[in-house]
Amino acid sequence: MDVYGVPFQVIPVKKKPRNSTEIQRVFTLVRAIPERKHLEITFPRVEGYVFDVRQRVRLHLDEVRYLQIDPTKAPTEVMVKPAVGYRIGRPDRLGPGPEAVHDRNPFHREKRLQATVYEIAAELTRRLKERREDWGARHIIFPQVLDAVWQYLEERVVVVERDTPLEEIALLKYKQEIVERLTAAMEPDTEAGEPPLLPVIERFRPIGSTSEVLFRTVRLCKDTTKSHISHVVLDSTWERSVADQLEHIPEVIAYARNDHLDFTIPYEWEGIRHEYRPDYLIRLRGADGQEVKLILEVKGFETEQDRQKEVAARRWVRAINHHGEFGRWFYVVCKEPRRVQSDITEAISAAGL
Question: Residue ranges of the Type III restriction enzyme C-terminal endonuclease domain (predicted)?
């Protein structure tokens, strides 16, 4: 409400009581520093991929994480009995009538392993050749995909319980995970003359940059020296450890935490599209003076969804490197924050820099 011509002092206002012990929160302005323009990190914004397999497909099996078949995470046996008569309260096993055991043995007998593998391979082939005009090439792609699925089951699927049959993968959650991981790990075989996997760059926001970072926060922050961004927000103790190490690694030119940076990698999980936000972007200089960019993820505990994120990140790196206009990129997962420097050094040496 606006009041005109009346002094504000004459309007009675009820004052909110203030606790004398209340601590006033201090805000920190996190921003890109113009004087550190030489430490800027840019990155492409990818919204999808151009995937055109004609005759030959290749599986990057070394980049696909292990899949754990763990039946202990869901009930595998249920005791049931018919409801007889009228009872007050919740149902229990004390009433009359015979009990029956429902388990997964009939399901395992019905879903043969070979049939499940064929279903997975058929879904992968459908994804590789979705357009109606490409359906004629499915008979060429399907045998290669089928071999890839068998190879994945033999080398990358781990059964936690010894007595659990491999037919357990016929469950929808496992089938979806296998399809999603193999889809992200497959690409045209460029050595056989196939066109490479390429990214689809956002049309209206093609390039992201650390120069766009500007926000306020009440969280604990740490000043930076090797970053275009003024502070690193510390949500946990390991983030301070990682930031301290990045400041002192000689090969690091610049780094930035992916906070309000809007750097995302698309991936699919349980049939739904998601966006993965890695922890850090880093500019590195190799021994030959060549500059590369590194995506760093620090992870102490991994879930199956985290493993799917890693597969998607490696696919993103392959597509960007095939594109060739955004520099050379790498992806590293660090499982111990204190080993950041050694993991980065190993990545540099493995890349031949």
Answer: 226-310
